[in-house]
Amino acid sequence: MIAVKPRYQQLKDLIIERISRGELLPSDRVPSENELVESEKVSRMTANRALRELNNEGYVERVAGRGTFVADYRSRSHLVEVHNIADEIERRGHTHSSQVVRQSRQRARGEVAKALHVEQGTEVFHLLLVHYENGTPIQIEDRHVLTSFAPDCLAQDFEAVTPSAYLTGVAPLQEAEQVVRASMPIAAVRQRLQIDASEPCLVIIRRTWSGGRPVTFARLHHPGSRYELTGHYTPPGTSRAASGDVVRLEKLSQ
């Protein structure tokens, strides 16, 4: 016997499908409770629950006095903290997947050798992956790892476990450094992120330390239209007063 979905879930699925098909775009107004009651022949309680849960799950935003709008689906990461991208995506209620482009040994040259504090020509592991959120490319991870730090690196299935999760399991993260840049990507990056030539990338350059030495160096490319960084600072010795909600700015009129 096939279970029938509750009416509020059917209503949620209907709105999510309209968003997925592009009928409703980010910032578009979603039908109000009254409109849903009239058009879908549901109770006000059902319409309210559907919109409330869609808001809680990040599909829409309810603005007091204005209505309900399709949320901006740009993925978000913390500005200064280091997280596993798979965990970030799963916390948003979405599905993470990845594709390994390269998993090999190479000789450290130029900025890689300098970043890892090793001599030119030192053997390192090179990992190149594309991370997806609900099937949409959201990050290119271009990472170099000291072979002495993670000697079994090439034996790992990085489509099953992310490099970040694996490396953290090898040894706890001791220290990290991040630099954030805006950059116009090369053709190979544009192709893998499925963006056009006019779209910039947000690039995070990250080094991590373990045992008092840098052990990984990564360049993380994100499509500028689908990713943003957030941060909140509380001075030492003070309690946090903010709720942690991110301020959403109105779009500037042209």
Number of strands: 11
Low-confidence stretches: 246-254
Alpha plus pi helix count: 7
CATH architecture of the largest domain: 3-Layer(aba) Sandwich
CATH fold-level assignment of the largest domain: Chorismate lyase
Determine the CATH superfamily of the largest domain. Chorismate lyase-like
Distance between the termini: 55 Å
Q: Report the portion of residues in β strands.
A: 25-35%
Pattern of helices and strands: HEHHEEEHEHEEHEHEEE
> What's the helical proportion of residues?
25-40%
The biggest beta sheet reads: 6 strands, antiparallel
**Average of pLDDT:** 84
Global outline: elongated
Number of domains: 2
Q: What is the C-alpha radius of gyration, as a whole number of Å?
A: 22 Å
At the first level of CATH, the class of the largest domain is Alpha Beta
**Adjacency order of strands in the biggest sheet:** 5-6-7-10-9-8
Structural class: alpha+beta
Name the descriptors.
Chorismate lyase; 7 helices; three-stranded antiparallel beta sheet; about 250 residues; Arc Repressor Mutant, subunit A; alpha+beta; six-stranded antiparallel beta sheet
Can you walk through the features of this model?
This protein has helices at residues 7-20, 33-40, 44-56, 85-91, 110-116, 163-170, 187-193, and strands at residues 29-30, 60-63, 67-70, 75-78, 96-107, 123-133, 136-146, 175-183, 201-210, 213-223, 227-230. It has 254 residues and is α+β, with helices and mostly antiparallel strands. It has two domains: 7-70, Arc Repressor Mutant, subunit A (Orthogonal Bundle); 75-230, Chorismate lyase (3-Layer(aba) Sandwich). The strands form three sheets. It has a six-stranded antiparallel sheet. Strands 1-3-2 form a three-stranded antiparallel sheet, covered by helices on one side. The protein has a two-stranded parallel ribbon with strand order 4-11. A hairpin with a 2-residue loop joins β9 (201-210) and β10 (213-223). α1 packs across α3 (44-56) and α2 packs across α3 (44-56). The longest helix has 14 residues, at 7-20. 25% of the residues are buried.
